[in-house]
Fold this protein.
Amino acid sequence: MSLPRALRLVETSKGLRVAAQVPAAARNAIAASTFPGTYLSDLSVDLAVGEEMAIALFGENDPHFILSRTHMDQGTVRTRRAPCESLDHFAHDYLVDLAWPESGSLDLTLFVDRGLVELYAADGLVWITNLFYPIDVSAPMTVTPRKIDHDLSPAAKTKAGA
């Protein structure tokens, strides 16, 4: 699906960055879709430092995305994809750092078109496109807040031998 995007430069604490936004016509078309498994979901994530929220798509138990607030002004999005039969290297598990708004709430949008999922966050500074092969594209999405019970930092993974 890779959505059309309008790009703009944004001044951040780390210098100029490219941010993306879906044009209103494309956003409205997905929002109005009647195709099973095609939708958008706007979420406002309000987490305290040390909390996380898991997002599982397609009625699956394991989360596809995990948002964590690691500091007052920082967080991460962890994206996970399970292995697929006959696609040995399809699985992945990686982190994307993001600036967390000082207001406390991080706005994000999930664009879902059957198994193709795009996550938009941090005013377009974070954009993750991922492909899944769900059994049931029309099964519900679940959002579960939870306490962080592990260290997701790359340094911790290296120390643990991951």
User: Anything to note?
Assistant: The domain at 6-150 is CATH 2.60.120.560 (Jelly Rolls). The longest strand covers residues 38-46. Residues 49 and 70 are 5 Å apart (CA to CA). Helices lie at 24-31, 154-160.
